[in-house]
Amino acid sequence: MSDQLSSSAQSVTEMVEGLARAARVAQRQLAQMDAPAKEQALKFAADALRSAEAEILAANAQDIVNGAANGLSPAMLDRLKLTPERLAGVADAVAQVASLTDPVGQVIDETARPNGMVLQRVRVPVGVIGIIYESRPNVTADAAALCVRSGNATILRGGSEAVHSNRAIHAALVKGLTRGGVPADAVQLMPTQDRAAVGAMLAAAGLIDMIVPRGGKSLVARVQADARVPVLAHLDGINHTFVHAAADADMAKAIALNAKMRRTGICGAMETLLIDATYPDPHGLVEPLLAAGCELRGDARACAIDPRIAPASDEDWDTEYLEAILSVAVVDGLDAALAHIAAHASGHTDAIVTANQAVADRFLGEVDSAIVMHNASSQFADGGEFGLGAEIGIATGRLHARGPVALEGLTTYKWLVRGSGQVRP
Questions:
Q1: Average pLDDT over residues 226-237
Q2: Where are the alpha helices (H) located in 234-281, listed in sequence order?
Q3: In what order do the strands lie in the sheet with 371-374?
Q4: Which domain holds residue 135?
Q5: Coil, strand, or helix at residue 344?
Q6: Distance of CA 15 to the CA centre of its chain
Q7: Residues 178-222: pLDDT tens digits?
Q8: pTM
Q9: Could you tell me if 238 and 319 are in contact, meaning their C-beta atoms sit under 8 angstroms apart?
Q10: Are residues 44 and 165 in the same domain?
């Protein structure tokens, strides 16, 4: 049996290496396509998604049935589900990426040296990007579009819960992209759900240039722990909203309710509400959340606001719920809010609601997260809402790219040096 398992793992590794080599060849061809050609190919891809609506929705319906039978949570099923409106949004996002400015070839800066040499830093594709993701079938289209527009080949490995949806979306994308001249191997979908394929991708240093994981904490943690390829990712979305004493009450209610309950299963959802101890109407802030069916867990002062608020455990402050559960803490002003966020935030998105601009400026300057907001819902933590088109994910690290990762985040740069015969003394 051990020999059979070893042979199976070897065959998966060989398959992944073959996909990566084919992607490398396709990426070199893709890199030679000019911006208008890539734009047209992506428009064809968007059209192909619209034309394949019936097939994609039928495939998604099968995934929903399977997911419910396998015990997926309501939040996970919501992430998985496609409707005609959501699918139209997926196609529109691909078309939007097509219309964005191509970053490849952009001159970041230019310097003339005293010896007459001219140096430029120019944006270039990263190369071959592996995307490992769960649940959301829209990632198949978003990732493909962003990678093609930025000149990268991609290998997509979606979760088993969305396998039928991913295959239908991928087939439509490739049909449109190849019509526009993009090599089919520039966008490949992993043909197996064998978990060994993930390990093979993570180990494919020199064949895959970057890994982007999108999914649950266990997936991202595994990728970050095991990868021998650079990783661009966030682990948790433990996002805070601090309602300052000077917050407008109506604005605070609307933002808190939207930040948590618009869609509880997305990474931009608020997971902890911080209320200034001198905020005049804390009950008016939590009542709409309770009325909407949100379970609240609080510290002692928060529990005193409403008897329906249950005591929070130590773990609650470090939990990404991704469902209708919210931690609530009452804090003594801005400094205490900043300290709580520094201790418990995941570096994703944190927000303040206040009419005091000086307080807002301190919060924006001192909170060390990828996205920091003033008087806005954390649900706006999204590449599309930032005007970037579809995003490939949110990055919370401090290297290369941070926040919503779109076209620019999928490029690196090279130096171009133009001389006139200079030799170094």
A1: 87
A2: 249-261
A3: 310-311, 295-298, 325-331, 270-276, 239-243, 349-353, 371-374
A4: 9-234+397-417
A5: helix
A6: 27
A7: 999 999 999 999 999 998 999 999 999 999 999 999 877 788 889
A8: 0.83
A9: yes
A10: yes
What is the rounded distance in angstroms from the CA atom of residue 417 to the CA atom of residue 114? Answer: 13
Q: 329 and 229, same structural domain?
A: no
In a domain, 133, yes or no: yes
Do 407 and 279 lie in one domain? The reply is no
């706006």: which residue's tokens? 380
Say if residue 191 is in the same domain as residue 259.
Answer: no
Q: Where are the beta strands (DSSP E) in 347-397?
A: 349-353, 371-374, 393-395
Q: How far apart are the first and last CA of the chain?
A: 65
Contact 152, 129 (CB under 8 A): yes
For the segment 377-381, the average pLDDT, to the nearest whole number, is 97
Length of the chain: 425
One domain, residues 207 and 252: no
Q: Give a yes or no: residue 392 inside a domain.
A: no
CB atoms within 10 A of CB 217: 14
The Cα 7–Cα 107 span in angstroms is 48
Number of domains observed in the structure of the chain:
2
The answer on 253 and 212 residing in a single domain is no
